């Protein structure tokens, strides 16, 4: 089984507002899948449905199936807390824990889930920061506040924090939208590196970014999945007229 | 030009009225403080802090037992009131807008408006009548006064913690309750500590509910089922007495009380200033 996710008839609502309509798609393992589409099309809601973050918003509701490694994460017996440990998330705005040091930010997921062994924590912090290409910049300052870093560093810190709990999937919600071009380039390089061992799903506003970093691209419009396929194919030879119009900048 | 002059005059008049209001607000405050300091300061010496209440005819005495009793009473009240207030505040902020939370918030507002003497009578009916005039009854009454103060400040403090911080923790697979007590509470701990200190300052000066539920006691602390001496009641009882040295003790007690409350308020301010 090569697909990490198999999404069947996924619908999502905020109160009475129907934001995702019957989405069916498969997300491949160890690849980067980009979700593109105009504002308000349901991109963020879609990835928040993949780790059961959608339901923490009051009034939010989901129907349909999301098979993760073949198991429906919306099944009654499934604990959302366990799901979120396997499917990490990086948010639009960098959100390190403000009262914690860089070290504690990265170790937070392990510490708060009961890991006490200093050796294990040290190793996990180093491994995660190295993986997030941040280790060399902060190795002298691990006890400084996470909030003291620059925006791009903070976002890589958040990626390291998500990686520390050893997830299988990283969901990214417009991770570069608050960052400058240099910080963005660093994160994009990091996303490519992560795809070697992780399944990455990234929501982006920026079509060039989707073209640069992703293997697969899904185009959402008004809550519906319009087109989904290999990024090269979607960008060079879109099947749907709406996709072409969006990609050529006719609306957005 | 005329218009300009009129505007300047209006401006000066407004300024004058504002300063006048400020001044009239400060006069009573400073006259209370200066009077208490003037009359209380001469009473205060080393003995004042180490000796208990004098008996009739005894020339010198102190308020050591009253300080002890006040600290024990407000300590006991805090042990009851702070956890309940804290939990209510967490409930109001973290567990959504339900009918229950609307009701709880409304009841806290009502409770903080109830005159403290009524709460004292409540504690008298519920506790004093079964176990007698006691520290326990007074602590119970004071705890009820603390609960709405602690709950509302906790709620406000927790609401200032951005939602994105909670989401970050939940997305790491940290259970909701652990997210609340670690990440969310630690982000708001200084503001919460301030609220707790201010509620302690408030109950340290309460006299009516203490008098009704615990009564007056002039000896050292003798157990939670007995009354204890109290600074606020010292002021009340000694000021009524006919003896010169006891009236002096009332002024001294008032000064110590003001200093205790001032100390707590200043500590609370320092806590808030340290934020970021």
What is the compact description of this entry?
The complex is a heterodimer of chains A (252) and B (276). Chain A is an alpha/beta fold.
Describe the structure.
- The complex is a heterodimer of chains A (252) and B (276).
- In chain A, the strands form two sheets. Chain A has a six-stranded mixed sheet with strand order 6-7-8-3-9-10, with helices on both faces. Chain A has a four-stranded antiparallel sheet with strand order 2-1-4-5, covered by helices on one side.
- Chain A is an alpha/beta fold and 252 residues long.
- Chain A has one domain (29-49, 85-247): P-loop containing nucleotide triphosphate hydrolases (Rossmann fold, 3-Layer(aba) Sandwich).
- The radius of gyration of chain A is 18 Å and the shape is globular.
- Chain A is 36% helix and 27% strand.
- The longest helix of chain A is centred in the middle third of the chain and has 14 residues, at 118-131.
- With 276 residues, chain B is mainly α.
- Chain B has a domain at 67-231: MetI-like (MetI-like fold, Orthogonal Bundle).
- In chain B, helix 6 (135-159) packs across helix 8 (176-204) and helix 8 (176-204) runs antiparallel to helix 11.
- At the A-B interface, helix 2 and helix 6 of A face helix 7 and helix 8 of B.
Q: Architecture of chain A, according to CATH? A: 3-Layer(aba) Sandwich
CATH superfamily of chain A: P-loop containing nucleotide triphosphate hydrolases
Q: Biggest interface in this structure?
A: A-B, 28 and 20 residues
The CATH top-level class label of the domain at 67-231 in chain B: Mainly Alpha
Overall pLDDT of chain A, averaged?
Answer: 93
Number-wise, the strands of chain A total 10
Provide the gyration radius of chain A in Å: 18 Å
User: Roughly how many Å apart are the termini of chain B?
Assistant: 48 Å
What percent of residues of chain A are in strands?
25-35%
Number of helical segments with 4 or more residues of chain A: 10
Q: Mind telling me which CATH architecture of the domain at 67-231 in chain B this is?
A: Orthogonal Bundle
Estimated share of beta-strand residues of chain B: under 5%
- In N-to-C order, the SSE pattern of chain A is EEEHEEHEHHHHEHEHEEHH
CATH superfamily of the domain at 67-231 in chain B: MetI-like
Globular, elongated, flat, extended or rod-shaped: what is the shape of chain A?
Answer: globular
Terminal-residue CA separation of chain A:
35 Å
How many alpha or pi helices of chain B?
11
């Amino acid at each position: 089984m090569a697909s990490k996710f198999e999404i069947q008839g996924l619908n999502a609502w905020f109160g009475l507002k129907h934001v995702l309509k019957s989405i069916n798609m498969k997300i491949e393992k160890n690849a980067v899948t980009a979700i593109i589409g105009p504002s308000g099309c349901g991109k963020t809601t879609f990835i928040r449905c993949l780790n059961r973050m959608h339901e923490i918003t009051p009034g939010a509701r989901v129907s349909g199936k999301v098979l993760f490694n073949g198991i429906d994460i919306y099944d009654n017996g499934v604990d959302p807390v366990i799901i979120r440990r396997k499917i990490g998330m990086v948010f639009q705005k960098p959100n390190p824990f403000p009262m914690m040091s860089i070290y504690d930010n990265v170790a937070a997921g392990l510490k708060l889930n009961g890991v006490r062994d200093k050796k294990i924590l040290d190793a996990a912090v180093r491994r995660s920061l190295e993986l997030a290409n941040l280790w060399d910049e902060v190795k002298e300052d691990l006890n400084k506040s996470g909030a003291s870093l620059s925006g791009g560093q903070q976002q890589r810190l958040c990626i390291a924090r998500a990686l520390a709990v050893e997830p299988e999937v990283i969901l990214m919600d417009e991770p570069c939208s608050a960052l400058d071009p240099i910080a963005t380039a660093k994160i994009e390089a990091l996303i490519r590196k992560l795809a070697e061992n992780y399944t990455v799903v990234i929501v982006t506003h920026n079509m060039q970014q989707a073209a640069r970093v992703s293997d697969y691209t899904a185009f959402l419009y008004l809550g519906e999945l319009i087109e989904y396929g290999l990024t090269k194919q979607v960008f060079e030879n879109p099947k749907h007229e709406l996709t072409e119009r969006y990609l050529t900048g006719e609306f957005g | 030009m005329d218009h300009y002059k009129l505007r300047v005059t209006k401006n000066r008049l407004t300024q004058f009225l504002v300063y006048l209001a400020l001044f009239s607000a400060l006069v009573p405050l400073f006259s209370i403080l200066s009077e208490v300091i003037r009359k209380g300061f001469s009473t205060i010496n080393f003995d004042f802090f180490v000796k208990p209440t004098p008996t009739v005819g005894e020339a010198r005495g102190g308020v050591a037992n009253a300080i002890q009793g006040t600290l024990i009473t407000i300590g006991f009240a805090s042990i009851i009131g702070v956890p309940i207030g804290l939990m209510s505040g967490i409930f109001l902020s973290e567990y959504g807008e339900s009918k229950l939370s609307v009701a709880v918030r409304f009841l806290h507002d009502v409770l903080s408006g109830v005159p403290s003497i009524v709460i004292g009578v409540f504690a008298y009916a519920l506790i004093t009548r079964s176990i007698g005039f006691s520290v326990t009854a007074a602590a119970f009454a004071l705890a009820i006064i603390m609960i709405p103060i602690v709950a509302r400040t906790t709620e406000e403090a927790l609401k200032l913690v951005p939602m994105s911080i909670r989401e970050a923790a939940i997305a790491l697979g940290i259970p909701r309750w652990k997210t609340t007590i670690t990440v969310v509470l630690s982000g708001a701990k200084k503001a919460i500590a301030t609220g707790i200190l201010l509620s302690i300052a408030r109950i340290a000066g309460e006299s009516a509910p203490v008098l009704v539920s615990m009564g007056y006691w002039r000896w050292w602390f003798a157990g939670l089922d007995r009354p204890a001496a109290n600074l606020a009641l010292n002021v009340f009882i000694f000021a009524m007495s006919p003896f010169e040295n006891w009236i002096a003790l009332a002024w001294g007690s008032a000064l110590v009380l003001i200093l205790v409350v001032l100390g707590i308020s200043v500590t609370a301010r320092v806590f808030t200033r340290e934020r970021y």
